[in-house]
Amino acid sequence: MDKEILTVLLVEDEDAHVEIVRRAFRDHYLLEVRLKVAGTLREARKYMDEILPDLVVLDMELPDGSGLDLLPGNKEDIKYPIVVMTSHGDEKMAVEALKLGALDYIVKSEDVLVEMPRIAGRSIREWSNITKRKEAEESLKNAAKEWQRTFDSTSDIIFIQDGDYNITRVNKACANMVGSSPEELIGRKCYRVFHKSDKPLPECPFYDVKRDGKSHSMMLDKTVFGMPVALTVSPLLDDEANVVGAIQVAKDITEIIAAEDKIKETAEVKSKFVSTVSHELRTPLTAIRESIDIALEETLKGGDHSPEEFLNLAKKNVDRLTRLIDDVLDFQKIDAGKMGFNVDKNDINEVVREVYQTLLPLTKEKGLKCEIKLNGAILGISFDRDKITQVIMNIASNAIKFTEKGSIEFITDLEGDNAIRVSIKDTGVGIAEEDMPRLFNRFEQIGRKNDRKTGGTGLGLAISKELIREHKGKIWAESTPGEGSTFHFVLPIEEKRG
Using alpha carbons only, what angle is made at residue 264 by residues 259 and 269, rounded to the nearest 5 degrees? Predict the structure, then answer.
């Protein structure tokens, strides 16, 4: 049988005792020991620095001091087992040695020294067991810390309860949500903490968990946890598979609900888009076809009516169709984030004047007074000329469309120290207060759900809002039903669009 090789440091200054121990180890049939001997504290410290012995046997009375001086001071700092040797009747020093970190003590005598191999084997085995136990405890402690870190790091609200609804553990997210420390929540009834109730709610999933031992889930609105959550309650089972508690996990689903709402909104927009565009395209196409049919008939039959009248009508509807298609294309570009901008120094007064002159014939045709008031102090600013022209044209066209008498007024002015304002004022039908929040929504045709005479995709103002937003500006409207409306937008003078 192979012998176990051990390194033992014997701190002993009496040669006779050293020889007894050396002989005892040498003659032992199972242990092979490399015995290192130190006769003083100084020599012992030197050996302790150079080697890591499997065992230290330490005499308490040495020429240069007490063996107690070699002890670490507590058992946590000890690196190897130390057995101290005391004189007969010196139990007080033995107790002191144990307090300072010694593993065991023996009363020194020749009979005891002869048994040193047995004492060494027993001490090393005991030390091995202690070390393994410490390692196991440390491993469990680290695992518990890791579990707690994971438990606390998740943003989900988690708590553990026993079978009587008493909270036994909570994570930080849960404690923060109710404004308490985890320690303050332990032992409290979960229905009192979260529902402010004196008893469990009838719909509590834990009833079902206790009944069938399976996980159950439910959705809760923000009244319980301050946000909408998906709550999952999973059973805690004992060794006999009996439900003794539960783990409750509440996951914030605010973003999920927002995404679902966005999908729903997109589907509604798509449906409204198809419905609106199909209707608006069909109307001018029908008018174009009928105008051309009549013009052809008049030409072929030589009728009393000039074909020119019907061809002009067809042209107007072609123009209307072009505007509708342009709106749809702009809408798609904005939605896809592909709308290009050509920003350069421009004169806003010049742009407003061009739109005014373009629409002047239309206002005269309707018998409307058209006025323009431009602030000459406004200098050139940076903007996309075509896009801002489109915005002014959209607003002004709407103003003319919904004004049967009175006037249309184009105004420019300074807005504070770093912006200009463009306003278009009409004396038309106005906008109801309840319609104002929806004014710049896509496909909204405010106040005329059952009246399609004015036509349009309902995209003009929505597109205008996005174009102004891209210029880091703001657009809004003021209105009094029956008296008219004023649409304003502002653009920054300085370059603050990064």
Answer: 120
Three-class DSSP category at 458: coil
SS3 457: coil
Distance CA 256, CA 330 (A): 30
Does this model's pTM top 0.85? My answer is no
* b (16+ CB within 10 A) / e for 44-64: beebbeeeebbbbbbbbbbee
Token code pair at residue 215: 């996980």
CA distance 440 to 264: 19
DSSP state of 436: G
Cβ neighbourhood burial of 282 (10 Å; 0-12, 13-18, 19+):
exposed
Spatial separation of the C-alpha atoms in residues 298 and 257, rounded to whole Å: 61
Identify the structural domains of the chain with CATH numbers, from first to last.
4-136 (3.40.50.2300), 154-252 (3.30.450.20), 258-336 (1.10.287.130), 343-492 (3.30.565.10)
Q: Per the structure block, which two tokens stand in for 328?
A: 């749809």
Exposure string of 389-407, with b = 16+ CB inside 10 Å and e = fewer, is bbbbbbbbbbbbbbbeeeb
Distance, CA of 311 to CA of 296 (rounded, Å): 10
Cα distance from N-terminal residue to C-terminal residue, the chain: 84
Reported as a single tens digit per residue, the pLDDT across 339-394 is 788 889 999 999 999 999 989 988 999 999 999 999 999 988 999 998 899 899 88
Question: Which tokens hold the place of 299?
Answer: 């030409």
Cα radius of gyration rounded to whole Å, the chain: 46
CA distances from 381 to 378, 420, 496 (A): 9, 9, 12
Residues 6+ apart with CB under 8 A from 409: 370, 371, 372, 373, 423, 424, 425, 426
Nearest by Cα to 306 from 296, 319, 317, 321: 296
The pairing of strands 31-38 and 4-11 is parallel
Q: Amino acid identity of 197?
A: S
Residue with tokens 């702009």: 330
pLDDT tens profile 255-309 = 888 888 888 877 776 666 665 565 555 655 666 677 677 777 767 766 566 677 6
